[in-house]
Design a protein that fits this description.
The complex is a heterodimer of chains A (627) and B (396). Chain A is mainly alpha-helical and 627 residues long. Chain A is built from 24 helices and six strands. Classes of the chains: A mainly alpha (627), B alpha/beta (396).
Chain lengths: 627, 396
């Protein structure tokens, strides 16, 4: 590679980094002040891009038209962000942080379908801007003028934000709230206005990032998801709440990606390292490495613990409520009789619910008693599914042996990834699990010879005795019941007590001689094991699998199921799984606007049942052990 | 009293037979509408037009056609679930649909397992009819290998030695790249290729154009489409790259993707596509008029495929004389239907259709992107012959 080419790659990377920085800066501000993990942030970026596209249509593709459109789009998104905060998020600050994630996830579905309604399905790129439509020759390489504009634009905004944070009263409040928001409240600062303003500013920055990209990269409906994952990566690599960190991380990630794309293969001693294959996950690899070396990101500060008043958390009680066991027994009876209805689809659907239920329960075990939120739990489901499928199809194992071995393969994944993950906490831990899941995904997606790559694997049909829908149903039901009982048992065993002790007060637990890392690691492996169990059976119940069993979508579905279930007991995630699958199945059948409708329902659920949609009906026995 | 009872029974019998005769033929339809709206929206309009047309002319065998359509959320596991629902709860006679390769293969495998007929209406995957083909699956559109071969037939004429091969790095792009190299090497064994795989939907246009330019190839083959193609075309326009270099881009002439290129349309590139406003055959003019009257919009390739698929289904049922699965499969084998692209046959040997596509160059007409110097290429010449096709398919 020669110098001129390297410079052109560098400039290209910087141009991507600029808008990555803007969107990440917004996310970082919002998280820093309000601790909201704003899943709709990518949607703000996408809407900013679409809006700027339409506005340029009116204002004309001149420099002035572009400037007006970009400013107007950013302001409009700031306004939208303000409205979202006032109408929705403000009501959720008291709820567990997962509900804010759930609500903003619902919003992102709604925004996505709305964008489809308004702008249609085609990718939209703004016309070339007169005056910025050419390129300059730098070291005999063409560099688009517009790239240079946004290369300058990012640092200018960064400087502006820096000045605002360091020199203005508002900035001082933001910094104070990021460091210790309760203290800010105690000092008599109006929380409400500050939170709204910060959220609006964050949304404005995301909208600005999207709008600035529109003469360079088209607006389309997948922009929200790709952006949110990039933005999370940048924020976490840089360190939560750190503006210079986000700036640095954006440049690192933008450059890393440009290098992978531009270089193709890198000769490394006698090997050819196919860098291009890494483009799918390069940002996650960067993140994993950074988090393993620096658990708080490049420039992150230790998270300040909220000084909430001591809650009277009731210890886990032995099962004594006869009502509860009666309910369990009678619902089990009903479920055993379900095949008598003679409706094959009902059984297929229920099988799916139970397998999702096992997955959700294992995730709940990790999140509730374990206190570790995972954004990448699908990795273990997928390892189980692919493990079983490969053992059966490629290694020629019997179905039974493959299904029995699947959880152990997933657990082995849990042993490796868990070892790194449990050394972190909070959002950092969640993001590291996501990074591992994405790395596993990209390997499975690209290893054509072994896993069938993007085609997935087909023809994974079960043994004779399991081909009937009834027997598959009973298998799923019994495994689901076993999972709930097993994890309930673990939760009530001395191990469970230690696990919760570590979660509630790591310091005290360690003083008592409990090995925090070992306990959490074991819990992580156990959760992976059960996720893998669900995955193995899933592969045979479907007959085919593809890389999306391991994708972010499934991890998020799991989080939604757990949250819908209400984090109150080991069986609640199954109700969450049932509700989520039922909703999706029915809404998809009845309306084309199903994604948006599902979004609205999720938002309303988060809003009205922040104690958990389904468990709130069981107020008579509020078990607080999950909190 | 007895007469009254007999009368009632008679009336009941007549009423129910009447109801039976009127009972529609139910057809299940599955596709990834939300995941790929730009490709599948027009497809849906196309098949809806066909179904209305069939029903307005009295349906098939005196029965109306009723389509129960489901979104599969873009993933195989949901697709298999809704397929099961359509079969066991809705009691459909056959399945139509699928787009992305992994979903198509999963549904096709389900069809084989459950012995349900599947008309794969939108997928480009040749595996559905060849390496994973079976008696229950038919495919409508010219598959990736066939379309690539059609484009390569133009590319071998220029005798370029060093090729840059740009493709989205998943099934479609990988197959296109491999087929292209195979076709070129068959004629020019000394040709060399440099791969530029791109993450699907996430192409970095700038880095890509720069890397290809740096490689200094004689000519370029690309299988980019949708937003990846838009980014590539913008960077090519802004950087004035690929000057005088022959470029061959699959699908770029399809209005689904061509129209979004607007002012960036790379004039002179050789492409496959669909010049909808220039085809003057009576079949196409009739289709175009109906489509425009109904939707106030112009058709895309997907519209034609959807329209063709449901007309083929109706013809097959008519030929079979019943919606019975085995009879319909037999009827489908060798079935010839008239379509907006002319006559199309579903081959008996491998269940692939002879639907073709248009090959031409990109240009502008009335300041809008258009295909120029195009000609229609029937798939027949590019499909494997009977012995080859049998060898491609698994043994029964």
């Amino acid at each position: 590679m020669n110098f001129g080419y390297a410079i052109s790659l560098f400039l290209n990377g910087l141009a991507s980094a600029s808008s990555l920085f803007l969107v990440a800066a917004g996310l970082s501000l919002i998280f820093g002040v309000s601790r909201v993990v704003n899943f709709a942030h990518g949607s703000f970026y996408m809407l900013g891009a679409y809006l700027a596209y339409s506005l340029i249509g009116y204002a004309g593709p001149s420099i002035l038209g572009l400037a007006l459109s970009v400013v107007a789009a950013a302001l409009a998104l700031g306004l939208l962000g303000g409205v979202v905060e006032v109408v929705l998020l403000r009501r959720l600050y008291a709820a567990p942080e997962l509900f804010q994630l759930l609500a903003t996830f619902g919003l992102s579905l709604l925004f996505s379908d709305s964008a489809l309604l308004i702008w249609g399905p085609e990718s939209l790129l703004a016309p070339r801007i007169t005056g910025l439509d050419g390129s300059l020759q730098i070291f005999e390489r063409s560099v688009p003028t517009y790239d240079l504009v946004i290369i300058v634009g990012g640092p200018v905004v960064f400087a502006g934000l820096w000045w605002m944070l360091k020199r203005t009263h508002f900035g001082m409040l933001v910094r104070a709230a990021t460091e210790d928001r309760e203290m800010v409240g105690v000092l008599g600062i109006n929380h409400t206005v500050l939170f709204t303003a910060v959220f609006a500013l964050g949304a404005l920055l995301a909208g600005l990032g999207g709008a600035l990209q529109i003469p360079r990269s088209p607006a389309d409906l997948s922009l929200d998801l790709t952006t949110i994952s990039d933005a999370f990566v940048v924020v976490v690599v840089g360190g939560l709440g750190s503006m210079p960190g986000a700036f640095l991380a954006a440049i690192i990630v933008g450059m890393a990606r440009a290098i992978c794309l531009g270089v193709g293969t890198l000769p490394f001693f006698s090997y050819d390292v196919p860098l291009a294959k890494l483009t799918l996950v390069v940002e996650f690899i960067v993140m994993a490495v950074v988090l393993i070396v620096k658990p708080l990101g490049l420039l992150g500060l230790p998270e300040t613990r909220l000084r909430s008043p001591l809650r009277a958390v009731r210890a886990v009680q032995p099962l004594r409520s006869s009502t509860a066991s009666m309910i369990a027994a009678s619902s089990l009876t009903i479920l055993l009789l379900l095949p008598l209805t003679g409706q094959p689809y009902l059984l297929v659907f229920a099988t799916e619910v139970f397998l999702a239920g096992i997955f959700a329960t294992s995730l709940y075990f990790l999140m509730g008693p374990g206190g570790m939120i995972s954004f990448g739990h699908a990795a273990y489901f997928g390892l189980g599914a692919y493990g079983a499928a490969l053992l059966h199809k490629s290694a020629g194992w019997s179905m039974e042996a493959a299904i029995v071995t699947a959880p152990f393969i997933a657990a082995a994944g849990g042993v490796v990834f868990g070892w790194f993950s449990v050394r972190l906490s909070g959002v950092y831990l969640a993001m590291l699990t996501l990074a591992f899941a994405q790395i596993v995904w990209s390997i499975i997606f690209q290893w054509d010879a072994l896993t069938g790559g993007s085609n997935g694997m087909v023809g994974i049909w079960p043994s004779e005795w399991l081909t009937s829908k009834t027997s598959m149903y009973f298998l799923a039901l019994s495994l689901c019941a076993t999972t709930v009982l097993a994890l309930t048992f673990v939760n009530r065993s001395p191990f469970g007590f230690m696990l919760r002790a570590v979660r509630d007060s790591a310091l005290r637990a360690e003083t008592l001689g409990i090995n925090r890392i070992a306990i959490q690691w074991a819990a992580f492996v156990l959760a992976s094991f059960f996720a893998g169990l669900a995955g193995g059976v899933f592969a045979f119940s479907k007959g085919s699998i593809s890389a999306d069993v391991i994708g972010v979508g499934r991890s998020i579905d799991g989080l939604v199921m757990v949250t819908l279930g209400g984090m109150q007991s080991m069986a609640a995630p199954i109700m969450g799984a049932a509700a989520f699958n039922w909703l999706q199945d029915n809404i998809m059948r009845h309306t084309e606007f199903w994604r948006g409708s599902l979004g609205i329902i999720i938002v309303l659920t988060a809003l009205f049942y922040s104690g958990g949609a389904l468990s709130s009906f069981s107020v008579r026995w509020p078990r607080r052990d999950a909190k | 009293m007895r007469w009254k009872l007999i009368g009632a029974a008679l009336i009941f019998a007549v009423a129910t037979t009447g109801a039976n005769a009127q009972e529609p033929i139910r057809i299940g339809e599955i596709n990834s509408y939300k995941a790929f709206p730009s490709a599948l929206g027009p497809y849906r309009l196309g098949w809806q037009l066909a179904v209305d047309e069939i029903n307005a002319s009295g349906g098939v065998l005196g029965r109306k056609i009723e389509v129960i359509s489901r979104d599969d959320n873009g993933n195989p596991s949901d697709a298999v679930r809704v397929a099961e629902e359509l079969v066991s709860r809705e009691g459909i006679s056959l399945l139509v649909g699928t787009f992305a390769s992994h979903v198509a293969l999963a549904v096709s495998d389900f069809a084989r397992q459950r012995k349900v007929l599947l008309i794969a209406a939108q997928t480009f995957s040749e595996k559905v009819v060849w390496s994973q083909g079976h008696e229950y699956a038919f495919s409508v559109r010219p598959n990736t290998q066939v379309q690539t071969a059609m484009l390569a037939a133009e590319a071998i004429k220029i005798k370029a030695k060093r090729w840059a091969v740009i493709f989205p790095d998943y099934e479609f792009g990988q197959t296109a790249a491999a087929s292209f190299k195979k076709e070129i090497l068959a004629k020019h064994p000394d040709a060399t290729f440099t791969d530029f795989p791109v993450p699907f939907g996430k192409a970095d246009g700038g880095a890509l154009v720069q890397a290809v330019t740096e490689n200094k190839p004689d000519a370029i083959f690309s299988a980019l489409f949708a937003s990846d193609l838009i980014r590539l075309a913008r960077e090519v326009a802004v950087r004035k790259a690929f000057n005088d270099m022959p470029v061959f881009n699959l699908l770029a002439g399809e209005p689904e993707y061509l129209d979004s290129l607007k002012d960036d349309v790379p004039v002179g590139w050789t492409v496959t596509g669909y010049p909808w406003n220039e085809i003057k055959t009576p079949e196409h003019e009739r289709f175009l008029a109906m489509y425009r009257a109904r939707y106030n919009d112009y058709p895309r390739v997907g519209s034609v495929a959807g329209y063709l698929a449901f007309h083929a289904v109706a013809e097959a049922i008519k030929k079979a004389g019943a919606a019975d699965k085995d009879k319909v499969i037999t009827a489908f084998e060798g079935l010839t239907v008239s379509s907006p692209f002319g006559r199309v046959t579903f081959r008996k040997v491998d269940h692939a259709s002879t639907m073709g596509t248009f090959v031409g160059r990109l240009g502008r007409r009335d300041n809008a992107p258009a295909m120029v110097d195009w000609h229609y290429v029937d798939a027949t010449r590019f499909l494997p012959n009977e012995a080859e096709a049998l060898a491609l398919r698994p043994k029964r």
